[in-house]
Design brief:
Helix content is 18%, strand content 28%. By secondary structure, it is of the alpha+beta class. The two termini are 30 Å apart.
Amino acid sequence: MNNHDDTQAGRARVTDSPELLSYYDELAKVEAGALWTVANEIEPWYPQPRSVPVLWRYADLRPLVRKALPLVNADDAGRRVVMLVNPGRRELSAAVGLLYTGLQIMGPGEAMTAHRHQAAALRFVHEGHGAWTIVDGQKLAVGPRDFAITPNNTWHEHGNEGTDAPVIWQDGLDIPLVNALDANFYQVHPELHQRPGTVVNSSLLSYGGNLLPYGMEKWTRPYSPLLGWPWEPSYHALGRLAGAREGSPYDGVIMEYTDPVSGGSVMPTMSAHLQLLRPGQATLAHRHTGSVVYTAAKGRGVSVIAGHRFAWQEGDIFCVPSWAWHEHENLDASEDAVLFSFNDFPVMRSLGLHREEAYPDNGGRQPILP
């Protein structure tokens, strides 16, 4: 018997009758219902994500993001962001699954007011020099392709100290997840701005050297004390690993940004990765629970997601829904390609929901759908 046959014993297979339909009406009047009428829908054989694979081209988005700069005052908007919305998750303002992403622009000399929220946030800088963020009083300077975090419930504000060009960075947040749990809070800083410490990049200076500081108060918070990971050392670490190991057949040479104290993910609900595809490399297809937002940090390539082919180049953003088959290919025969990504894997693992499998047929490669 087909294991996914809803007519088999063990699945809901009740045939409606006039008496049952009348019974359902009686239940509805007291805000109740019969489980067997929805059981197969709410307990599917395998994940049925509403999100669909999407590619957002940076060349299309960039002029629209810049157009917002003179149209919307930063103080009025709070944050001047163009959000990327999945057609299957519009009601949640989500990019994929329960993850949000958007492109934020800050003009030269501009500073946003400070606030905090229960949702966790991260940043990946696309362009511009002079960007900074202050997280719980620690000022962090970031540049193109740098990665930074704003853990949940930390005071934070952003700005651009540059004098000649805007900064555009990508925000990633777990807002849809926190809202789904009815756990979100938002608060504006009572003084509108924080008073930063005297040392810029203090978290990087303290925790970014692959050695843990000794003799300091022990870090006990559930997120990384390191708030930023500059591009150059991260990319060089990826290159060194590529020289030492073959890497994953499904992800190429991949590394996770980690909490230097715990060795785990940078925040409890989201993790982030950097992966390198060698020149001409094509990975095998696999799928897993958990949603992923990818950003092409370097090079150009193709990803096949749920049988659909998406060609990307530097700056483009695309998503892989939970349990969707996916594989990647570097189209350049002489240069490597690098993908930055963030995901909700920590949630999947902490709740015991993580599952992963390789594509079983066709030598591990998906057929392309028409």
